[in-house]
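Write out a record, focusing on structure:
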Amino acid sequence: MKKLKRSARLVELTQFLLARPHTLIPLTTFAERYGAAKSSISEDLAIIKEVFEEEGMGELQTLAGAAGGVKYIPRVSEERALDIIHKVCGKLEEPGRILPGGYLYMSDLLGQPHLVNEIGDIFATIFGGKNIDVVMTVETKGIPIAYATGAKLNLPVVLVRRDHQVTEGSAVSINYVSGSHKSIHTMTLSRRAMKEKSRVLIVDDFMKAGGTVRGMIDLLAEFNAEVAGVGVLLDSGSVDSEERLFEDYVSLVTLETVDAKNRTVGVKPGNYFEK
């Protein structure tokens, strides 16, 4: 790569780091990439580190020694996270989101890449300090959130399927009880999808009684895997009178009220902000 002016190098270096979160990058990589001395690269990184921290964009961690380097850790301040979630709450409270049968329409929100990426930033901030191997979700509307979170944590995403696919090879299947309908469902996970004894972050879009999350936890037991955390975009809060099957989770939004007649809902920031 040709030599860049320092201003251009700072821009390109910043973009390089943002595209590779939670990845340890040796200083020699940058020195060779930009044809610059390590001392110059270190000065550049010090500038970027200061800006990241001042603007609440995350932090740069450095590791000294021959095997050392720099690693970008995405972080979202609680103030910024709350601002994002207030915007989500405003959109969820728009008229007409309650569908026949009492379902809450969220697909339009989960189809907005910028918003989903911001949600991924928040989950990456919450769970970034944990030792996690994979992000898991069930094949439903939570997939965009899982991939956004996985991208920010630099982790693979594992999809639990409702039905076994022959292209997935041998799989483990279990039955679980849906807390919302008290009915029996099946979920399956390919043996090749995840190594045994992995530490797993479960991410989902909505949790009512927690039957689906409980099912994924039971499925993980078949892989001798450990649950490192559970994050949901929206939980049913006190609106659902049913006993919750799982309690140890982090939610970003909580459902407060449902007016089926007028098809309106009331929401508030989730338990993550109740500190």
Notes: Strands lie at 58-63, 69-74, 134-138, 157-160, 171-177, 184-190, 199-207, 226-235, 250-259, 264-269. The chain has eight helices and ten strands.
